[in-house]
Amino acid sequence: MPPTGSALRRPIPAPRVAGPGPDASGGGRTIDAVLRGLPSHGWAGGWVGRRDRALLVLTQRAGLSYPAIAALTVGDITVRDGAATIRVEGGDPITLRMTDDCLLCGPCALSRWLHALGLAGMHSDGRVVASVIARAAPLSTHSPHVCEGATLASDGASGTLVFPADDRWAVAPVTQTGLPVPARPVHDLRARAAHGPHRTGPSPRAHLDVARVDGTTTPAPVDRPTALENRVRTLLNGLA
């Protein structure tokens, strides 16, 4: 059954071509340097690298706000013929064009992450996903452009968040070896409405501490947009 989200029901105006997005680092490494240094294969580095590459492309290349990125579903992104079209509720579609350098290609980054999410959705055994990503060829400047084909959401996956809040693999150390015992990430299929209306500015931070029984404190959970913003800052500051 085709997606029925409000972003897909409304008439789609002509897409705008994205330029460089805002620099969230406050200094630090350039976006090109970070993209070149991300892992592309091995487990769990290949999974984390694919996710981080897509996240950086959406914020730094497409210029999307963190609330908008947190609300994106797989069905909101289409990659075909060397271009990625991103549909955002309440705004015009954004188009990212292919670049010669595969390490810096936004459409390729999104296509590879959507493919990884698709694998996780199709296979209940997490070892299948880990095996595919672990054996992938290392990404290089001259790697084939996967964006030149077509990457479309299947009917069953179209409502899956592009960055699931409960992706247990995304927090695995990139140096971890072996295959995962748990099944695939349990993707958050909640509707976009669950995130509330999109905000154009930075989301408020929630750096509160929660007291534990033993007297120590642990940071309170932050909202998803803030978590994504923190991850981008970590990457651009070279702390990942």
How do you describe this structure in short?
By secondary structure, this protein is of the alpha+beta class. The chain contains seven helices and seven strands. The termini are far apart.
Descriptive report:
- The structure is a single chain.
- The protein is α+β, with helices and mostly antiparallel strands and 240 residues long.
- It has one domain (8-175, 205-236).
- The protein has helices at residues 6-9, 31-37, 45-61, 66-71, 106-122, 126-134, 224-236, and strands at residues 16-17, 77-80, 83-86, 94-97, 150-151, 209-211, 217-219.
- Helix 3 (45-61) crosses helix 7 (224-236).
Query: What level of helicity do the residues show?
Result: 25-40%
pLDDT averaged residue by residue: 74
Structural class: alpha+beta
Order of helices and strands: HEHHHEEEHHEEEH
Distance between the termini: 40 Å
* Helix count from the secondary structure assignment: 7
Inertia-based shape: globular
Strand order of the largest sheet: 1-4-3-2-5
Beta-sheet strand percentage? 5-15%
- Identify low-pLDDT runs: 1-15, 19-26, 172-218
Number of strands: 7
For the CA atoms, what is the radius of gyration? 18 Å
The tally of domains stands at 1
Largest sheet: 5 strands, mixed
